[in-house]
Write a structure and sequence with these properties.
Length: about 80
């Protein structure tokens, strides 16, 4: 289904930039918002999204275990 909205250009620019910083298009961000608003997400979809975000994050502990105290140590 296509949906037409009236939104101020300034808001659209800011929203598009925010969506891009999260690695998605504005269209995808709006679609996700509407899914959440309508209660359409399932646990399985949440798991897939979390796994996808984790893989795209670029984080890498290089196999080193991270403990609570070690997080606050300064070299």
């Amino acid at each position: 289904m296509n949906l037409t909205l009236s939104v101020d250009e300034k808001i659209v620019r800011k929203a598009r930039k925010a969506a891009a910083s999260m690695g998605m298009s504005l269209n995808e961000a709006v679609r996700r918002f509407l899914l959440e608003l309508g209660g359409g997400d399932s646990v399985d979809q949440d798991i897939v999204e979390m796994r996808d975000l984790s893989l795209r994050s670029g984080g890498d502990s290089r196999g080193q275990p991270i403990d609570r105290e070690g997080l606050h140590e300064r070299p």
